[in-house]
């Protein structure tokens, strides 16, 4: 598991960890039931505090990406396809909101924005 942290990133360290682990799970790089390092192990390998690693794991667990089994460790949670699709839709919605705001700012009509999106969608 390769996590790259940046001190120049405006995101807090724990969010950088969460974002990268989520991306690895969503892409299939990390598969259901794959073991993850312990909180201490993650903290040590990333040179961050145990509290930062714990915060990241708590967020991932709350969002259903990982599960901790007492005495056995932390693992990638078994994901169902509906959950993965919802997460992909959430990401797309966020990007489309940014695009809509750009369209409004530069007075580009919704129809023009839709045509541009369709053009990109139909490209191979």
From TrEMBL:
Protein name: GntR family transcriptional regulator
Domain HTH gntR-type: 11-79
PANTHER family according to UniProt: GNTR-FAMILY TRANSCRIPTIONAL REGULATOR (PTHR38445:SF7), HTH-TYPE TRANSCRIPTIONAL REPRESSOR YTRA (PTHR38445)
One Gene Ontology MF term: DNA-binding transcription factor activity
Species: Candidatus Blautia avicola
Gene3D superfamilies per the UniProt record, alphabetical: Winged helix-like DNA-binding domain superfamily/Winged helix DNA-binding domain
Superkingdom field: Bacteria
UniProt keyword Transcription regulation present: yes
Alphabetic keyword roster: DNA-binding, Transcription, Transcription regulation
């Amino acid at each position: 598991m390769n996590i790259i942290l940046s001190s120049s990133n405006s995101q807090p360290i724990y969010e950088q960890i969460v974002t990268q682990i989520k991306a690895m799970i969503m892409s299939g790089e990390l598969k259901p039931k794959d073991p993850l390092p312990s909180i201490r192990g993650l903290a040590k390998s990333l040179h961050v505090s145990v509290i930062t690693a714990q915060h990241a794991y708590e967020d991932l667990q709350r969002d259903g990406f990982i599960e901790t089994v007492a005495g056995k460790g932390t693992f990638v949670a078994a994901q169902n396809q509906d959950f993965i699709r919802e997460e992909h839709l959430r990401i797309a919605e966020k990007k489309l909101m940014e695009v809509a705001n750009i369209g409004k700012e530069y007075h580009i009509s919704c129809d023009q924005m839709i045509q541009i999106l369709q053009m990109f969608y139909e490209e191979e």
